[in-house]
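Hello, quick one for you while I still have it in my head. I'm working through a protein record and want to make sense of it properly. Would you mind checking whether the tokens look sensible for this chain? I owe you a coffee for this, so here goes:
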Amino acid sequence: MRFKSRSDILFQVLLYGVCLLLLYVLYQDLTINKIDANSYIAGVVLFSIIGLILWILHGTYYVLNETDLIYRAAFLRGKIPLEDIKELTVGKSMWVGYKPATARNGIIVIYNETKRVYISPDSNESFVKKIKELNSDIKIVN
């Protein structure tokens, strides 16, 4: 089952604001300076950064199958076997660490005793319900 990542308003405002700022910088460069090779290079770099930001915002998702939890967030990708997951902490935010997520108050997945990854599925409740169906040994902490 595939779960899209939830995106909260703070994250959206921050990242869309950066995109608009970069577009403004590019616009200023093209209107004030004459167009030369440096303008083209700046344009390519700025559009690449904007593309990466939009990829993070719209390309983050999680897949639960019978054996694994698979996460994708732009270039951050990984797979966690369900039997290795020991605990899910629901409704918390992890401010430091590995975070293929786009919202606060998500789920902290603890696996292999000490490793952690933070995710933010569209619905924490449906994600927890589905993962409990697949592996009932996982401890849920609210």
